[in-house]
């Protein structure tokens, strides 16, 4: 249709029409861009549900050529719609002035159009219309990097395409020394909540973040920062990390398989997690621990007490079989797990048990909720670790060796891990230098 109009117009008009089309395109694009920006910013540039006629701007820009404005392009408009809870395509289309027939045609715009079924509240749809109010394009940015565009081909046929933006990744470093708690030190180092948890998870088989972090412990981590068109879209993976706990150095590097390995190629994953409770639930233990180290109480107590709020999830420290899940007046609700032939772990004083005797549990599976049942002075988990029937301190006992990386992967891992460890070390030097 537009093509026909251009053909019948005299040449000077053609040029100005082309020029105007460019203006229309730029304006439309800038409006789309504004809508896009509003996804990331708190203030919305385009008010959702309000129609913005492009014609208003065009009149000023091309007042000298009214005949082109009469040709109908001036009535192109754009509308940004913010998805609300309970919305669906039909509802949204009705609200922006489109018909059920339009909904039907758009829903048949190829397989990509199915993305519209997965719209989430708070996301934006951008519509452009021609002068008859017919939908020209529908744009839906469904992730930070992916955009669905549905374009009208003929009067009732639409096509869809997905564009993937190029992601640019930068390295980011964070390091710190612990004075009050790991969490505080990591926040001070500029790490996000998620990255702090990820770092603790990487070392969760070697370090008890709930009980054994001490003042003077240090961490040094290198992770990805991701950008699209210069906009920060989020953090990527932790690539390499070091944690020094009570003088012991632990290092981990992420391999291409997504798992973490020590520099010697041993997996960071081991048979037992060091703590059956996530350290975030443990309150003010750090200061307490400085005066009552685990080792000092170990002989009399034969276990580790994790004080945390009632209801805190407690997980199996290793995979195994539940050999006891019951209640008595001393241990309260308690669960025992057998791991292979030699190991048993015991968990006492639950407010609620989540597993039954005979059940097979995975490492990290929630087996109960922390409580204060039985002989207990307050909400805490009493955790015991037994080797061949003898109570042992899981910190000092020799545990099964971690699996090494596959032989076929060893060379690739070394090639990847060495430069990363060097970058970590260099960055530490830079940080130390800047402190002096
Ligand atoms: Zn205890």
Description:
By secondary structure, the protein is an alpha+beta fold. The protein has four domains: 1-73, no CATH class; 77-164, Nuclear Transport Factor 2, Chain: A (Roll), CATH 3.10.450.350; 168-261, Nuclear Transport Factor 2, Chain: A (Roll); 281-392, Glucose Permease (Domain IIA), CATH 2.70.70.10. The chain has eleven helices and 21 strands. It has helices at residues 2-8, 11-40, 55-61, 66-70, 89-95, 100-107, 182-188, 193-202, 285-291, 294-301, 407-435; strands at residues 51-53, 77-82, 124-129, 135-141, 146-154, 157-164, 167-177, 218-228, 231-245, 248-254, 260-261, 304-307, 313-315, 320-328, 332-339, 343-350, 352-353, 360-361, 366-369, 380-387, 390-391. The strands form four sheets. Strands 12, 14, 15, 16, 18, 20 and 21 form a seven-stranded antiparallel sheet that branches. It has a six-stranded antiparallel sheet with strand order 1-2-3-4-5-6, with helices on both faces. It has a five-stranded antiparallel sheet with strand order 7-8-9-10-11, with helices on both faces. Strand 15 and strand 16 form a beta hairpin. Helix 5 (89-95) packs across helix 6 (100-107). Bound molecules: zinc ion (ZN). The site of zinc ion has 4 residues, from loops.
Quick structural overview:
The chain is α+β, with helices and mostly antiparallel strands. Helices cover 29% and strands 31% of the residues.
């Amino acid at each position: 249709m537009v093509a026909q109009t251009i053909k019948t117009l005299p040449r000077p008009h053609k040029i100005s029409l082309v020029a105007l089309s460019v203006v229309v395109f730029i304006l439309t694009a800038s409006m789309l861009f504004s809508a896009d920006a509003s996804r990331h910013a708190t203030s919305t540039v385009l008010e959702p549900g309000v129609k913005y006629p492009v014609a208003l701007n065009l009149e000023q820009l091309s007042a000298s050529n009214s005949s082109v404005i009469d040709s109908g392009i001036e009535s192109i408009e754009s509308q940004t719609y913010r998805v609300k809870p309970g919305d669906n395509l039909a509802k949204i289309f009705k609200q922006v002035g489109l018909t059920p027939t339009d909904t039907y045609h758009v829903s048949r715009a190829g397989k990509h159009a199915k993305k519209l079924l997965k719209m989430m509240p708070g996301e934006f749809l951008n519509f452009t219309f021609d002068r008859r109010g017919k939908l020209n394009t529908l744009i839906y940015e469904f992730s930070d990097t992916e955009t669905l565009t549905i374009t009208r081909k003929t009067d009732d046929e639409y096509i869809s395409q997905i564009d993937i933006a190029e992601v640019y990744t930068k390295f980011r470093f964070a390091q710190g020394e612990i004075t009050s708690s790991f969490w505080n030190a990591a926040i001070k180092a500029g790490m996000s909540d998620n990255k702090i948890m990820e770092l603790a998870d990487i070392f969760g088989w070697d370090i008890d973040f709930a009980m054994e972090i001490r003042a003077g412990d240090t961490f040094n981590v290198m992770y990805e920062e991701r950008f699209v068109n210069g906009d920060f879209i989020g953090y990527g993976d932790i690539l390499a990390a070091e944690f020094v706990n009570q003088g012991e150095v632990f290092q981990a590097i992420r391999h291409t398989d997504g798992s973490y390995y020590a520099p010697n190629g041993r997996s960071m994953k081991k048979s037992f997690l060091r703590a059956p409770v996530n350290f975030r639930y443990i309150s003010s233990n750090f200061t307490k621990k400085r005066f009552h180290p685990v080792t000092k109480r170990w002989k009399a107590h034969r276990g580790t007490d994790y004080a945390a709020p009632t209801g805190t999830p407690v997980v199996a420290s290793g995979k195994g079989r539940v050999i006891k899940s019951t209640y008595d007046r001393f241990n309260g609700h308690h669960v025992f797990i057998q791991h292979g032939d030699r190991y048993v772990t015991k968990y006492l004083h639950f407010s609620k048990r989540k597993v039954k005797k005979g059940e097979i549990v995975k490492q990290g599976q929630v087996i109960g909720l922390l409580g204060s049942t039985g002989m207990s002075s307050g909400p805490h988990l009493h955790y015991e670790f037994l080797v061949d029937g003898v109570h042992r301190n899981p910190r000092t006992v020799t545990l099964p060796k971690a699996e090494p990386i596959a032989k076929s992967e060893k060379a690739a891992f070394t090639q990847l891990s060495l430069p990363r460890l060097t970058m970590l070390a260099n960055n530490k030097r830079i940080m130390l230098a800047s402190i002096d």
